[in-house]
Structure formats: C-alpha cells, structure tokens
Amino acid sequence: MLQAIRDDWVKRPWWMNLIFYFCLYMTFIYMPFDIFYKPVAEDEEIWFGLTLTGWWAKATAPLHWLIYGAGAWGFWKMSSWMWPWAAVYAAQVVIAMFVFSLLNGDAAGGLVGGTIAGAIFAVPMVALWRARESFRPEAAQTAGASGSADG
Question: In terms of residue numbers, what domain contains 8?
C-alpha cells in the first residue's frame, strides 16, 4: 500500500498533490458532513464571494460536492480536461476571496484583506494555469519527477 501511495505521489508536482488531497478531503469527509449532518440553520456556502445560508446553502452544497469530486477524480487521473478548468475554478476562488472580504469587512480592512487573500489564492491559480503539460497522459508519469509547475 505504501508503494502505491508513493507511485501516485510522483504523478503530479508536490503542490498539485496538496490540491488533490484537499479535494479528496472535501469530497469524502467535509461535504458529506456538511450536507447530511450539519443543521440547516448553521449551513453556509460561499459562491463568488456571496454567502448563502439556510436552505439556499443546503440546496447548493451538492454543487460544491460535485466540483470537489470532479477535482479529486481529475487530479487522480491527471485528466486532460482539468486544464484549464482547475485554473478557472481557482480564479473564481481568487475573485470570491476578494469579494467576500469586501462585503464582510470594513472599507479599508476589506480591501486590504481581500487583496491579501486574493493574492495568496492567485499562486495556485497561476501554477494550475501553467501546468498544462502535466495534464497530458504521457506527462502524468513524469510530472512529479521535475516538481515544476510545467511538468
């Protein structure tokens, strides 16, 4: 089993493995908890920086589950359709972090916080955009060996 994990780890750059494992966590642990266990009154979902609560959050949570599941599958298989869609989703997260901070902070703090949060999430967005070659079938075997964003 340990060898299988090692073999899987070298399919993609280390930073992409972190995103892959995050998608696995969200797909198999957090989203089932969020959808099936968390009370409606406590449920929140963020879409493009806007906070949905209650039944609206509960109703849209399966879309997040689907996105994380698709991400987990795509990173596991290093599917070619992941480029550019992983980067596009990451760009949406950058926008959402900025908008959320603007809407939920004071004027100056929201702008500064949103800019910082957006900049942090822009790093994986740019890396995913530059990782096009990693999502080619022949590259999946060697992407992790170089550790670069370009595979």
Answer: 2-146
Is 29 inside a domain boundary?
Answer: yes
> Residue 33 has which token pair?
């908890």
Q: Answer whether residue 151 is part of any domain.
A: no
Let me know how many helices (H) and strands (E) the chain has, helices first.
7, 2
Instruction: Let me know: does 98 contact 109? Beta carbons within 8 Å.
Output: no
**How many domains is the chain partitioned into structurally?**
1
Report the candidate in 30, 26, 4, 32 with the shortest Cα–Cα distance to residue 72: 26
Is there a domain that residue 96 lies in?
A: yes
Instruction: Report pLDDT digits (tens) over 77-106.
Output: 999 999 999 999 999 999 999 999 989 877
Least Cα distance to 32 among 9, 1, 66, 5 occurs for 66
The helix (H) or strand (E) run that includes residue 101 is: helix 82-104
Tell whether omega for the bond before 84 is within 30 degrees of 0, i.e. cis: yes
Average pLDDT over residues 55-76: 97
